[in-house]
Amino acid sequence: MCGIVGYIGSKNAVEVILAGLHRLEYRGYDSAGVAVVRDGNLEWVKSLGKLTALDKKLEEKPLNGPLGIGHTRWATHGVPSETNSHPHFDMQMEIAVVHNGIIENYQELREQLQKEGVTFRSQTDTETIAHLVRKYYKGDLFRAVQRALQDVTGAYAIGVVCKHNPDVLVAARHGSPLIVGLGDQEGFIASDVPAIMKYTRKVLYLDNGQVCEIRRDGYRVEDIQGKPVTLTLQHVDWDDAAAEKEGYPHFMLKEINQQPDVIRNTLRGRVEEGSDQVILRDMNISEEELKAFEKIVIVACGTAWHAGMVGKYLIEKFARTPVELDLASEYRYRDPIVPKNTLMIPVSQSGETADTLEAIRIAKKRGAKVASIVNVVGSSVARESHGVIYQQAGPEIGVASTKAYTSQCTAFALFAIWLAETRGLMSKSQAKELIAYLREIPEKIQWVLDNQEDIVRCAKDPKYLEAESALYLGRSFNFPSALEGALKLKEISYIHAEGYAAGEMKHGPIALVTDKLPVVCIAVQGDTYDKMVSNIQEIRARKGIVLTVATLGDEDIRAHSHDIFYVPPCYEPFSPIVVAVPLQLFAYYVAANRGCDVDQPRNLAKSVTVE
Ligand code: M6R
Predict the structure, then answer these.
(1) Residue positions annotated with a catalytic role
(2) For a designed S-S bond to 98, which of 86, 175, 206, 334 qualifies (C-beta 3.0 to 4.6 A apart)?
């Protein structure tokens, strides 16, 4: 997730772009850059690090011009560096491109362009777009962009300028957001409304596959095949504060709502078109190595450790390889045994968690191969690992991890399928079926997001809102869901909550059940459903308050539950990815109703970079 701003008009584009990028910095902040067209020249400045570094460079080397594009980056391909930062250029340095998204066929395009004599400067997928536009450029930038995009698959929002076209700013989108703002003799493009709210409230929302040519005195929109499109101008009346959160009161809620797109992005580029073969190239694991691993160790902390537990269950089920799951803080202090042919998979949203990093160092010293699941590209965990699966979830700002968790579980599902297929334990048709299930998950999450009335109602109900303590129970694949649901509630609402494997209920926690104790029971359809119903009956018999997460259509469960959060039917091993969402929403609304600081809960930091 990156931020894009572009401007055409009579103001200094650099000032407009910088002001806009500062409003978009929450979308990415590992590097930034700006390019302007002035007097037939294309000039640019790029910088590694936060936007303030770019501000400083521009103070030293001022840029000025009435047409330009800018970008704040959240790396997906290629480490954060000045070379990989945007804008990217054609070989002649005449065309500049900024991009947000992931070009799925960039390897193919890159190889093809290289055969045609193109030299690449960066490791990014974006640079292919600049060279493609040049390939098709015959003086009309709009047409060249349209034609170039016909070769591209994946997600993009782009802004393009060319030094030979000083009166044209071209924008296009597919799968990544982009808006066009219109002013008096001026036009804007941006990833998000707040970037241009200072200048205009008149906005066009580009739709997938649409390309827009913006001139000072007007615009035109067509699809990439050249068919004209009519868009309705919208008026935005958000206030400034709500704008960065896209109208949500908290980043956490915004991030919960982003999850359908996040899961799509985690899957993006990882499943070969046509063959439905999983490909995880960046893990840097050869087929021989993959076949030879005798043991897998997953290390992580907090929510990432819960995702690790989902990963363990998936890998063991599909790939029949023993998995040891460890808290990174325990692993590093317990003299772990690392037999030969061990693969370690550290999991970390930030990639900066101190204990996880130390666990990696120990495992590497003892001969393990390390391939991590990480969200932040170029972070320490990614750099210190031999390989990586980048989550492609975009920046997570709320301290309570939400979209990173579901995306980590999705990454594990991909890995488990890949491992199982490579080891000959899963047929192509089985893998295909599982991938189809994964592709359905975003819609299932969307259903939960669109049907949250019961969650909102329960979060206001005093029996939950004023509870002192809560239990969360789940079995098998949804044991980690119980742990994660409890962690979400406790960290943001300060209600004491514990997650338990439901089978452990009778071994202690049942002593806590009274008519004041809410027990959240995850009883979705699957192998352990009947066992969960028995647990629910035991709780009811002791007058506990039962809040059940159940499968849509399960009416029998009503008789046993005080309240129910339904989720759509889901293949059980992947159900934790969907089940997480009502639990996140419940924790969020309870915390918000209790007046807690949802995005920055007391005593917590987003990344724990010290022991
Ligand atoms: O950045 P990481 O994924 O390594 O962070 C791990 C934990 O600190 C993190 O998941 C923490 O538990 C969150 N506050 C949970 O919401």
Answers:
(1) 2, 606
(2) 86
